[in-house]
Amino acid sequence: GAVEVSVRSPVACWFSAMLYCFGGSVLSSLMLAEPPVAFLAKGTNIILASSVWYLVFYCPEDIFYRCFAFLPLRLLVAGMKEVTRTWKITAGVAHADSHFKDAWLVMVAVGWARGAGGGLISNFEQLVRGVWKPETNELLKMSYPVKVTLIGAVLFTLQHSQYLPIARHNLMFLYTVFLVVSKVTMMLTRSATSPFAPFEAALGHMFFGLQKIPSKVKGEGAASSNGSSVCDPSSSEQHRDGVKKRQAKKTE
Fold first, then answer.
1. Is 236 within the bounds of a domain?
2. 153 and 60 Cβ atoms separated by less than 8 Å
3. Which residues contact 109 (CB under 8 A, 6 or more apart)?
4. Shortest CA distance to 128 belongs to which of 49, 27, 54, 19?
5. Which of 24, 156, 178, 228 is the most exposed place for a label (fewest CB within 10 A)?
6. Residue-number span of the structural domain to which 166 is assigned
């Protein structure tokens, strides 16, 4: 999606857009102690992303945005994005393995960062635009793309370590089909609910239980709220009486 513009500076808007597009490369480079500006060396990608950014935000009459708002074209672009997500995850896992041999956590982390870097780095990207929304932290409340990328990073790490008995190209095909089908379905139904919601609820109940507020505590809370509502008028009356007495003393 397009990056929300909250600043007037075109430079800040462009930089935030580049962070959103190449956030995976920046974040994975920081994890592996590599130059985070390495993505700038790919001039073709920068020119392409900059051209799209300019057409989206500065095209007269929003013609470019309106064209891509056409539903079939949006579905096509969304499907292509999910295909590139698979390639980013596999590239991140392989790149991490070349630095840290058989380090599962590193491979998962780098694959996750490479595939969902735009979401994971969103808070820093917001600061560049002069916005601070801590409630949108992906580590506190993950969105569907970040969740499905994490699952993909785990699967491809297991396959790369030869603990998952499936060929790499078969896993890529099945995972990509799942990504495209789920994304298109969510767009057609206009649903923001994650397909993993039922499984998350079941696993949360199984491993962590449900934290319910006891009825006794609820009753005490209701009583205290009722008590405050009863006491508020008396306190206000006492305040008005005190004000009247002070005014009477002043007139005397």
1. no
2. no
3. 31, 96, 153
4. 19
5. 228
6. 2-194
